[in-house]
Input
Amino acid sequence: MKLTLRVNLLLTAVFVLALVVVVTVAYRFTADGPLQAVQVQRLVIALVASLAFVFLVLFSVINSVLRKRVLKPVAQVKRMADETAEGNLSLPDIKVTGEDEIADMQRAFNGMRRSMVRIVQISKKLQAKVKAQD
Output
């Protein structure tokens, strides 16, 4: 499952949860008859506090997932790109796990780096042939 789809499903779940809370509060208003101002104030405070807690937990989970699934692999690709740019072509391929966009980027980078290694090897062979002919 692609990362963007997972994030969308998670946000949809949060929306549904918030909707359930609002419907529950609305039902409470109509089921018990008119509420006193103090009761309404307490309900609003509880609702806001509950939603704040849910969004805090959700933010923490999304932050953790993004750090693990996006930021770490992108930093790894960047380090490998820097090493390759410095001429270090002996690095192993990046270990690819998953089927999301980040994994696609890692596979593409591995393919590009292998192609660069082949081009450099061919270039060295051609240079050696030219030197041998002189």
Notes: The mean pLDDT is 82. DSSP finds three helices and no strands in the chain.
